[in-house]
Design goal:
Layout (H helix, E strand, L loop, with lengths): L1 E5 L6 E6 L15 E7 L3 H11 L4 E7 L8 H13 L7 E6 L1 H13 L5 E6 L2 H7 L4 E6 L2 E8 L5 E4 L8 H18 L1 H9 L1 H5 L3 H21 L14 H11 L6 H18 L5 H13 L12 H8 L12 E6 L2 E5 L4 H11 L1
Parallel strand pairs: 2-9, 3-4, 3-5, 5-6, 6-9
Antiparallel strand pairs: 1-2, 7-8, 10-11
Helix pairs in contact: 4-5, 4-8, 5-6, 5-8, 5-10, 9-10, 9-12, 10-11, 10-13
Length: 356
């Protein structure tokens, strides 16, 4: 097992990465004797019973949500609150998120809100959640007009990444997680990007050593940035490379039709191409980025049915917008990202047109 630390002073917490961690009661320590486990219809049949055994000496209950991005909303969120109130859990309860990014985001948001804030633990079971959404304390739900626009910063007590759970992840979800992995190489870790180029086959074949390395390296990169800028007032926004484009595509297609990682992959291609149009990124580097994304079995073009006007309108509903200006994360080089709103709007439209 590898242990990393997210250094946030009094709110610091460990990330545990390894095999067969779900049943280890010594890792999954709640802050009191009250535990509510939140999972979904896909993950619960696989891992809920094993997780419950770790809490056999607690007052423990569970709530099972429907599976899918389309259910990440305030209506479904109320199922968590209903269970907490019906079972008379008080503010000493610890919520445990057992699942992927949707479960983690919703459980964390419920924990931030219930009785004005209770503890929670992230047990991430998808690659995307393991390398990204479980770390850093971003929680929330979607709105029909914009993704993740309702939420709160609320750090977990710990993050548990049992790599054995990836054995039951389907190929499409695995690739979606790899989009977030690629992102870390692009924003500030050229060496990792090169490693990814040389290890595509092992990652897609679910080689445990390769996946463990990729997860740990991604978490190390994210933990460092979060420690520097917990509430995204500056540098942390670099972690959104591809996300402004990607979120617009996800929302425009209808939540659940385009997976988050697929939207991010397309968004990274758009960011790379636009960076080249601005004269920052060399064309051969754009090709190199798109080639890696394709090799990871991810899409590189905007799905049919979306218009430029739709995408630009949805991009305006983004947390990085300031005074009506869309701030984008773009690339100077592979391994060097920047945040800017200084660009030619017509050039942005032209870039989108080429990817429609």
């Amino acid at each position: 097992m590898k242990t990393l630390n997210v250094d946030l002073g009094l709110r610091s917490y460990p990330i545990y990465i390894g095999q067969n961690l779900l049943g280890l009661a010594e890792l999954i320590k709640a802050s009191s004797q009250q535990v509510l486990i939140v999972s979904n219809e896909t993950v619960a049949p696989l891992y809920l019973e094993k997780t419950l055994r770790a809490f056999k000496d607690y007052k423990v209950a569970s709530v099972i949500l429907p599976d899918g991005e389309q259910y990440k909303n305030l209506t479904i969120l109320n199922q968590i609150f209903d269970k907490l109130l019906t079972d008379r859990f008080d503010r000493q309860v610890t919520l445990v998120a057992l699942g992927g990014g949707v479960v983690g985001d919703m459980t964390g948001f419920a924990a931030a809100c219930y009785q004005r804030g209770v503890a929670f633990i992230q047990i991430a079971t998808t690659l995307l959640a393991q390398v990204d959404s479980s770390v850093g304390g971003k929680t929330g739900v979607n709105h029909s007009l914009g993704k993740n626009m309702i939420g709160a910063f609320h750090q977990p007590q710990c993050v548990i990444i049992d790599t054995d759970t990836l054995d039951t992840l389907d190929d499409r979800q695995l690739s979606a997680g790899l989009a977030e992995v690629i992102k870390y190489g692009l924003i500030n870790d050229l060496e990792f990007f090169e490693w990814l180029e040389n290890n595509v086959s092992d990652l897609l074949a679910r080689d445990s050593q390769a996946l463990s390395f990729a997860i740990a390296r991604s978490c190390e990169n994210k933990a460092k940035i979060v420690a520097e800028d917990e509430r995204e007032s500056g540098r942390r926004a670099l972690l959104n490379l591809g996300h402004t484009f990607g979120h617009a595509i996800e929302t425009g297609m209808g939540y659940g039709k385009c997976l988050h990682g697929e939207g991010v992959a397309i968004g990274i291609c758009l960011a790379a191409e636009f960076s080249a149009q601005l004269g920052w990124l060399a064309n051969d580097e754009v090709s190199r980025i798109k080639t890696l994304i394709k090799r990871m079995a991810l899409p590189t073009s905007i799905p049919a049915g979306l218009t430029i006007e739709q995408i630009l309108e949805l991009m305006q509903v983004d947390k990085k917008v300031r005074d009506g200006k869309i701030r984008l994360v773009l690339l100077k080089n592979i391994g060097q990202a920047i945040i800017t709103d200084q660009y030619d709007s017509q050039l942005l439209r032209n870039t989108l047109q080429n990817y429609i």
